[in-house]
Structures are given as C-alpha cells and as structure tokens.
Specification:
single chain; 131 residues; alpha+beta; 17% strand; globular
C-alpha cells in the first residue's frame, strides 16, 4: 500500500502539552512549534491540530530531555485515519520544527522522508511491543 499523496491527504497533528514536552518552557522550541503547526493547518485543506496531555506516559517521557513531540495521523477528506500514526520528535531545534512543517505541507506523510533524529519516539513505539 503506497503512502497517500498531498491532493487527497489531510492530517491530524496531536501536540503534547505536558511538562516533558516543554510547551511553557522558553528553553525549548515548543512556542515556535505550536505557531508553525497552526500555520501548516491553516495552509492545508484537511489539517487539524489537537493539543492534549502526555501522549506516551511518564515512563517514556521521564527519562528524556524536555522537548516537544507530535503525533501525526494522515486522514482522508472525511477525517478517517489512513495508515500508521507517526510519532515525530523530540523536536529540539528550529530546524527540526521547519523539517516537520515542510513534511506536513508536502502532504506525503511517509516517515522515511523524515530525518532519523525526528523518529526516535516512532522507532521506540514500534519496538516496544516486542520487549
């Protein structure tokens, strides 16, 4: 099954607002990230931004540096999920934020198109059930 293309793909970007993701911490890129995600959603035809509490639980977040994480789920025009949800992060720099937003705007939500450093949580989640 191929990845959806920009023309028919929307997305839901779920931004964690828990302390471990640094949403109120000026030492992180969280403020820039939320503004950038809002812009990407406004520029998209079917994009939605959701904010929520911790996405991964204190065990996963308590052992890492404070930095934002975003869960991205591709969806069709009727908002039905398509494919796997991608856990992006931790986002540590403005360059990381720019890469995420460019990836969302391109509309082909293939995790292979993201740098490995932004797929740390995604890889851990894929391996976790095997442990």
């Amino acid at each position: 099954m191929g990845m959806p293309t920009a023309a028919g793909t929307g997305f839901t970007a779920v931004l964690c607002t828990a302390p471990g993701c640094g949403i109120d911490d000026d030492g992180t890129v969280a403020g820039r990230l939320i503004d950038a995600l809002r812009g990407a959603v406004r520029a998209s035809r079917h994009g939605v931004l959701v904010t929520t509490g911790c996405l991964f639980g204190s065990a996963a977040c308590g052992v890492r540096a404070t930095a934002p994480v975003v869960l991205v789920q591709a969806c069709d025009a009727e908002r039905r999920p398509i494919g796997l949800a991608v856990r992006v992060g931790p986002l540590r720099t403005t360059a990381d934020v720019d890469v995420l937003v460019s990836w969302l705007r391109a509309g082909r939500l293939d995790p292979a198109a993201l740098p490995a450093r932004l797929l740390d949580f995604h890889r851990r989640a894929a391996v976790a059930p095997l442990n």
